[in-house]
Amino acid sequence: MTSDSQTLNDVCEFIVDCLHNTAPIQEDGYPLIRTPNIGKGRLDLIDVYRVSEETYQIWTRRAIPEPGDLILAREAPAGNIAIVREGEKVCLGQRTVHLRPNQHKVDPHFLCYFLLTPNAQGKLLANETGATAKHVNMKDIRKLELGRLPNLGIQRRSAAILAAYDDLIENNRRRMALLEESARLLYREWFVRLRFPGHEHTRIVDGLPVGWHAHVLGDLCVEIREQVMPDSVEPDTPYIGLEHMPRRSITLNDWGFATDVSSTKHRFREGEILFGKIRPYFHKVGFALIDGIVSSDAIVIRANQENARPLLLMTVSSDEFVATTAQEMKEGSKMPRADWKQMQQFPVAVPTEGVLSSFNEVIAPILDQLKALSFANQKLRTARDLLLPRLMSGEIEV
Do 6-149 and 213-350 share a fold? Predict the structure, then answer.
């Protein structure tokens, strides 16, 4: 161990704040890293916002993020930090900080994990300010005390162990993204383009294949409004708020617990669909992996028949459904909300039993795999988080 205690500023070549402007975004281009894209160790580039070459040049004029650099979230939530990896050419959005570790003094991966330890997070967030959104000041980031760090060899070995867990988690995330995309493409091919198996030999009458039936969403499902107070359930009952629901992902694999909240919530069961009704264009909709309680800002949807659940899920998570819901949403006093009465009127083409069974034979295993991969990642994160403070403190020798 070295004898000198150091600050974060001491072990970095520079620590610079982001531009305090909203970057104009577009469909393609360079990833714009906002606070939701900063995970615990890794950047989340799934469905990331993107910017043009011109915007990239302006937003990186202070410093261009390079592999081995760190990006820290100053708020929402403050304290998350991730490393820029090979092949990731990104620029910083608002409320982020760019750090470049001096690799002669500290291993970047080690520093990233070190800053995620409970001890470092406690120091970093001790002086959070702000009446509404809490944030960390630049001066507090720069003067953060790191204490005595191990030598570079130990740093690299410790970081490599934790990175191996994150590599497995990332691989599973990529598999999940591919599975979800394959489900979306299949739904679009069969139910939007009507290119289902046997379509070549099926006549279309009044816009529907023969044997199919025109329905509305309300024919396939009901809204569940089973109210419950969090203190009336077990403390470890899973709680899903809008903050736990990812955008454009049907797998609801993140949650808190009933002890985290106090106001009235709604109960949901495994397999039911949750639709975030605040600003529905955020596209927060997916299926529950467990039983639990959910924010009243989400709609709990239950299929009337089990064999219709995959079709129901893919319908309400489709771009067409979300766009229609967003167009017809209610303008609330503070935030626009999805209107369930209007959502129920969305047209749904219900296929023959044979086509529906064939669709379920493909989609059901995908949903099972998504659930299995989600739980595998939870176990990996738990193991990593248990190891992290012990490795960083030197309690475990490497």
Answer: yes
Extract the runs of DSSP E, i.e. beta strands, from 210-323.
Answer: 213-216, 221-224, 227-228, 238-240, 251-252, 256-257, 265-268, 273-276, 285-288, 292-294, 298-303
β-pair partners for 348: 215
pTM over 0.85: yes
Q: Which CATH class is domain 153-197+352-398?
A: mainly alpha
Digitized pLDDT (tens) for each residue of the chain, 398 residues in all: 344 779 999 999 999 999 989 999 998 999 999 998 999 999 998 879 999 999 999 999 999 999 999 999 998 778 999 999 999 999 999 999 999 999 999 999 999 999 999 999 999 988 776 555 568 899 999 999 999 999 999 999 999 999 999 999 999 999 999 999 999 999 999 999 999 999 999 999 999 999 999 999 999 999 999 999 999 999 999 999 999 999 999 999 999 999 999 999 999 999 999 999 999 999 999 999 999 999 999 999 999 999 999 999 999 999 999 999 999 887 765 788 999 999 999 999 999 999 999 999 999 999 999 999 999 999 999 999 999 999 999 899 88
**For 23, which DSSP code?**
P
Please give the angle made by the CA atoms of 55, 68 and 170, to the nearest 5 degrees.
90
Q: What ranges do the domains of the chain cover?
A: 6-149, 153-197+352-398, 213-350
Reply yes or no on domain 213-350 having CATH 3.90.220.20. yes
Q: Give the span between the Cα atoms of 294 and 233, in whole angstroms.
A: 13
CATH of segment(s) 6-149: 3.90.220.20
Question: What distance separates the 2 farthest-apart alpha carbons in the chain?
Answer: 82
Indicate the residue type of 211: G
Query: Which amino acid is residue 257, in one-letter code?
Result: F
Q: Which residues of 68-79 are buried (b: 16+ CB within 10 A; e: fewer)?
A: bbbbbbbbbebb
DSSP bridge pairs for 83: 42, 70
